[in-house]
Amino acid sequence: MQKGKINVQTENIFPIIKKFLYSDHEIFLREIVSNAVDATQKLKTLSSLGKFKDELGDLTIQIILDKKAKTLTIKDRGIGMTAEEIDKYINEIAFSSAEEFVKKFKTKSEAEANAIIGHFGLGFYSSFMVSEKVEILTKTYKKGGATKAMKWECDGSPEYTVTEIDKEDRGTEIILHIDEESKEFLEEYRILNLLKKYSKFLPVPIQFGTEKVSEKIEGEKDKDGHDKYKEIEKPRIINNTSPLWKKKPTDCTDEDYNSFYHELYPMTFEDPLFHIHLNVDYPFNLTGILYFPKVKKNLEVQKDKIQLFSNQVFVTDSVEGIVPEFLTLLHGVIDSPDIPLNVSRSYLQSDSNVKKISNYIMRKVADKLEELFKKDREAFEKKWDDIKVFIQYGMISEPKFYDRAEKFSLLKNMEDKYFMFDEYKEHVSATQKDKENKLVYLYTNNKESQHAFIEAAKSRGYDVLVMDGVLDNHFINSLEQKLTDPSFKRVDSDSIDKLIQKEEALPSKLDETQKETLKKVIEKNIDTKTFTLSFENMSESDMPFLITQNEFMRRMKDMQQLGGGSAMFMGDMPDHFNLVANANNPVFSQLFEEKEEEKQDAIVKQLYDLARLSQNLLKGEALTNFIKRSVENIK
Description:
The chain is of the alpha+beta class. The chain is built from 21 helices and 22 strands.
């Protein structure tokens, strides 16, 4: 029996490990299981190099939970360790067996060496975050000499013991005696969820417990002639050892990609719109599959849908800084051995390989979108409403992506026709220039509530864009900065003739004295804190009252609600509207001629409420009073 002290710089290493090694204690299982996979992969590599000549046999890693004994065991049939290796790799924390192994065999088989999970450093010691005692039972694959099975034991102090034991099979068992504070890890559902989270795609089979499955009984039928089934219990294998992203794109079908998408997101019932298979080995190693999901209009997006792996070991689903911000809206997986496992995200964001990876992913996404657009524009247009949020987000946030996206970004009008930026400019340049020869793009963000304004624009031969996406407000601002020619104006931000002013202005049927008299009558009956009254000379057929909202202030308000930068300094902006009285509508001439004040008030209130109703601004008591008044007028 050997006793000793772990070769560390401070006697306080274990309290530090318990509290600070990882912010999330559940990581211990990832580390220990990954080490077991590492040991197994090493044995497979040795076998392929002819350095291990025995049968590999079943290499399944077993996770065994014993709630009564308060233990969790991780058992592999990998290379195991000798007493000397225990001393080197367990007692001397600074060494990493995986790192040394890769260096040793890299020149002989680089592809296989890269398949080994390495760089775990303090991985094994994460077990002490949840354990009051840890045991290692191990037997090396090596033959002869000092190759007896060994048991290493430590209770969380710097003292440990190493003794010889009887163990028939090669490999290592790590037995964690779970402490009182961590008894959650003695629950089957907790371990199962952790294994599914961190070990779902590890390259060696991992078994945890058993599961019941239905099995067909060969040769037996029920009375209706259907196959008979029986329920059997079989070992529960946690992981898919050969995930789709590890395969060559040429070997994968669309059905494969959709099936894998549902394997990643079992609660998602819709298929993705399309996918991008990433596969590069220079100047860095990266594989993965990114999916464009269907996005609801209210942007129910979770930015934790891209899963980051390092050699099939789950690292994180918080990938901001690792992939461009706008692509965090995508779903899928990224796997790169060049991304270190156990470092903070701030470190990842400054890592040069990570920056290269980020740029590469952005370029590949742009390539795919451009390819789809050029290959079948009609099919691309059908997907546009679903994918435009990704493209707009990218164009707003990434200048390099904007330059690429100009080749496939579209604008859609009320007739559901799609235009590239240059195409739309040509489409409206003959009709939608104002008296200063400036191009005006009219748009709606709500076809229903702005219907009257849209019809007024169409009656004058103008085209109206549909900009009703969650990011369109920000996107318009970006386009106005990039496209020097047009200004964007929402179709209800003013009367149509003021939005696109021409030289010929309509004369007014009311003189200034009449307007001033009517102004007093109107303002007496409206909410002047919310509405600012003005008279304009519009067509006789236009509505008596028009409610508009200043384009700039409305955009600021919309951006504030979406959480834009203006929210910080604009405060909680109250809604404010313009109430435009059409000086040429005959009703105002009649109103001026009406001498009874009570009748004047009733007419103004009814017109004012009709205008508010058309904009969904009439609610509560005001709506009740309007209905009562309307009924009385009918009587």
